[in-house]
Predict the structure.
Amino acid sequence: MQFFIDTANLGEIKEAYDLGVLDGVTTNPSLMAKEGISGADNVKAHYKAICNIVDNNVSAEVIATDFDGIIKEGRELAKIDDKIVVKVPMIKDGVKAIKKFSSDGIRTNCTLVFSAGQAILAAKAGASYLSPFIGRLDDISQDGLDLIAQVRHIYDNYGYETEVLAASIRHTMHLIKCAEIGADVATCPLKVIMDLLKHPLTDSGLEKFLADHKKANQ
Ligand code: E4P
C-alpha cells in the first residue's frame, strides 16, 4: 500500500518524507488556502516546492469546472513537473477532461468521489487514481469503508487499472481497514501516519529494556 500525505504544508511533507515511507502528496484548494497560498504564480511555485521534496505523485487540483478550462489548467499544472498528477473533480466535464488527459499521457486523480457509479465512470475515462472520500461519507452516516470495498471489488472484476486512493482518512483504523480491503493508496494527514507508530506496550517494553540495560551496566 502506498502512503500519500494529504497536506500542502511543506514542513509536514518533509517530516513524512524523512520517515522514509512517503510515496506522494495530495492537495486540494482548501489545503492550499490553509497555507495562505494564493495567486496562480504562487500556487505553481508551491507545487514546485512540494515536487522538490518528494520522489513522485503530487496531486494538484484544477479550479476550472468547464472542459476547456480544466484542460488548459491541467496542462499548465502538468508542465510544472513530471511528478504532478492533475486532480479533477467528478463532474461531467471532469470525466471528459480525464479521458482527454488519459489519451494525452497526463496522469489524473479523480476527486470528490462518493459512489460506485462515479468510480466506474472515472475508471472508464482512464483516471490514474480514484479518490473516494471515506471520512466525509462517515460524516453523513454512510460507511465510507464500504465504498472502498465496493470499488475494489468492481475494479478487480474488470481489471481496471485506475488505482484506488482512499481519501478523507481521519484515523488509523480507516487506514488499516483500507489496507485490509486492498486500497492501492491511502492519503492521510501527518498525524495519522505518526499515530501508526504508537502502542503503549512498545513504550513500556522499551522503558523496561533500557532500565534493565542501565542496571546491568552500572
Ligand atoms: C483528498 O485528496 C482530499 O484532499 C482529502 O482527503 C479530503 O479530506 P477531508 O475530508 O479531511 O477534507
In short: DSSP finds eleven helices and eight strands in the chain. The longest helix spans residues 200-216.
